[in-house]
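Lab notebook, bench 4. The sequencing result for the construct came back, and we need a structural model before the next group meeting so we can plan mutations. Quick request posted to the team channel:

Model the 3D structure of this chain.
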Amino acid sequence: MAAEYSRELGVKVYAGQKRLAELGFKQGGCAGYGLRRMLVSSDGVRKQELAFGERKSLFTDRVILVPGPAEEVQCVRNIYRMLVEEGRTVHSIVTHLKKTGVPSPGKQWDYNTLNSILSRPKYMGCHVFGRDSTKLCTRAIHKPTSEWTLTSSAFEPIIDPVTFRKAQHILLRRTHEIGNEEFLEKLRTLLTEKGKLTGRLITQTPNMPGLSTYLHRFGTLREAFMLAGYDVGKYMASLDVRLRTKMLREQLVSEIVKLFPHEVTVIQRQRRFRKILRFRNGRLVSLLIARTIPARDGQVKWRLRPTRREIRSATVIARLNSTNTDFHDFYLFPRLDRLCQFQITLHDKWLDGGRCLASLSELREATQRMFNRSRKKKRSKSTIDV
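Done. Here's the predicted structure in token form:
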């Protein structure tokens, strides 16, 4: 009944958000470069501009987008002018903005930042809602354009619709009308000039297609580099290790779910977030894979890279064998006490803070004991405080 109620409530909430989006009200998220969020009353009267992190306090108030500072608005218009009228490439515009010292919305101007400005309909005053769908802690799903909620003339435009559509046509023509062989020829030219191929070189080289274009055309950078005649052995060695580690992590998640099918569920907020486990008692357990690294003194060492958003959860440390092809042992920690990357040895004293698991079948019982122990500590502490 609780699950059915959650599903029904989710449908109602989404329907309400969609209705407000059709009226031209923003449902959440950042405004974007050159734009700001404006708080309006229920009858459309503007009240105040919202700063970063601020939210509306009244249930009946709404939020719309308005043009931001004059210098940012002019910068957006200059970007479209350089693309449409001057025929510059995205990389050329990025280089120009860096040389002229124009303040960037992030650390610095890059391809992704500029491409976002050139491809978002909000700059021509059109509100878009429902690009992605994430329901009940499931993976984010990218919905087709036909399922988006589009509301034209919802905001005051910075770019006129004709210029915006010309920009989309130019961006589309530069990639879709070029054959695969021409893309490979650009890689061969870059290889001749630099002597190697990397993702960073592709991003930093003017007049080169973006990484996403190569991934879309060839599936992986490895395939594109090989077709261009580049030996990917050294460059892809670290990538191979990361992919192998990712596969082992997926294997570990599947194995734990098979051991406790009615006790464990898998949670993944979005594709860019890692999967974590949630037991039936509500306890969250994250998985951290520790790869072996070469050591000069001959001693076996493991490198751990904690994730800040997971350090408060119970964590299973899975150490790999010397070849990083299988698991060596498992340790369960109530939480991690370190935020940065660190290394441990075979019998490291830091491991005393956790419990060594003889097998994964002990995970459920060990997690329950750890949960009960922490709950008793909280109760005893509250009793002392009283």
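The first strand starts at residue 35 and ends at 40.
Will bring this to the meeting.
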